[in-house]
Design goal:
Helix content is about 30%, strand content about 10%. By secondary structure, the chain is α/β, with parallel strands linked by helices. The two termini are about 25 Å apart.
Amino acid sequence: MDEFVVTPAWLSDRLEDPHSQSQPQIRIVDVREPWEFEGIGHVPGAVNIPFDRFRDEGDADRGMLPGSDVFAELVEEAGIEPDDTIVAYDDTHGVFAARFVVTALLYGHEDVRLLDGDYSAWNREYETTSDASEVEASSYEPEPLALEESPLIEREDVERAIDRGALLVDTREQFEFEEARLPGAVRFDWREVVDDETRGLKPRAEIEALLAERGITPDRELVLYCNTARRISHTYVVLRALGYEDVSFYEGSLTEWLAADGRVESGPVSSSNSDSDD
């Protein structure tokens, strides 16, 4: 799974032995708020790119991608080069960091990974610091994925996917799912793959079994959605790490769907399409 998700031990080994970091260089991105990064501490060498800076904060497209120019400015300030290996983390089981991972992938950064676990998990076993990281600004030219390569799909694409029998996966909580959901969707709360004790991902076999219970299997065409594309980012990274290939990312999610008066279902669902609250 380390093509998309890396363990704290993997990262620690590379921090302890810089000579093992022949190109590409490891760049660690902390997406927490600045007061957390500076006041609580961070992984040594990490740079701070807060979550709200890499998403659109406008009223029309709140929570959407920030735009390639904004992304380029952020990573240039952080000293990130196009060939660097990026490892992102947060302190919320990886859900905010996963949004950075997906954002970087969509803007063409080839090697970007999610730290398995979060800052609290790292802090249990490894060194942290409050010292500012020395950064030399870089030059960065994003290369957004072409339409045929990108997992992003629009509302019209979702409607066509529904018509051809794709499986829609809702990554939200039970009460949200019952209030309104896309037609035929199954619920798979993004937190189901997280171990509350370790704060990292559950074992691969356990995750695969949980997915299979909902019919979320590698042979299916999958369309992920939530409200504003944060929670589906985590599920998307996990599915890609497991080798799932036919996974679409509906960034507009339910917010856009409702604004366009799209068809929805609501109310309780049968036991085959529900689960206990996390």
